[in-house]
Structure formats: C-alpha cells, structure tokens
From TrEMBL:
Stretches of the chain forming a coiled coil according to its record: none
Protein name: MbtH domain protein
Top-level lineage group: Bacteria
GO CC terms, sorted: cytosol
Pfam families: MbtH
InterPro entries, sorted: MbtH-like_dom (IPR005153), MbtH-like_sf (IPR038020), MLP_fam (IPR037407)
One BP term from GO: siderophore biosynthetic process
SMART domains found in the cross-reference section: MbtH
Transmembrane parts of this sequence: none
Domain MbtH-like: 4-55
Length: 69
C-alpha cells in the first residue's frame, strides 16, 4: 500500500493547465508541469483556479470529439 502524500498548506499557489483535448486542471505552481499539459497563465489559490476553470471550460466535451461532429 502506498502512503498518502503529506497535506499541503491552504495558502499554496496553483496554476491552471490545459491539455491537447482542451481539458483543464489545476497544478502546483512550484512543480514542473506534467507531460502533455500547458499553463494557461491563470494562477492563484486552488479555489481561485477552480473558479477560473468553471468560467472558461463551458463545454466538457474533448476537442477531438467536438471536431468530429
């Protein structure tokens, strides 16, 4: 069984990231981005980033599916 990661402080900074399918997520600002993800420029607390994603990610359908319609 793997150990759970240590909890991070509530004041941590995050960035909003997007992948090639135009799917959004939040990522720790102090860590290298995972492969396949690009920073959008939006950053802040986790909640601020989630609020931003809620405003900009209005169609949850992956880009490849939208393109095939």
């Amino acid at each position: 069984m793997s150990a759970s990661p240590a909890p991070r402080p509530a004041g941590d900074r995050y960035v909003v990231v997007v992948n090639h399918e135009e799917q959004y997520s939040v990522w720790f600002a102090d860590r290298a981005l995972p492969a396949g993800w690009t920073a959008t420029g939006a950053q802040g607390t986790r909640q601020e980033c989630l609020d931003h994603i809620e405003q900009v990610w209005t169609d949850l359908t992956p880009r490849s599916v939208r393109a095939s319609r």
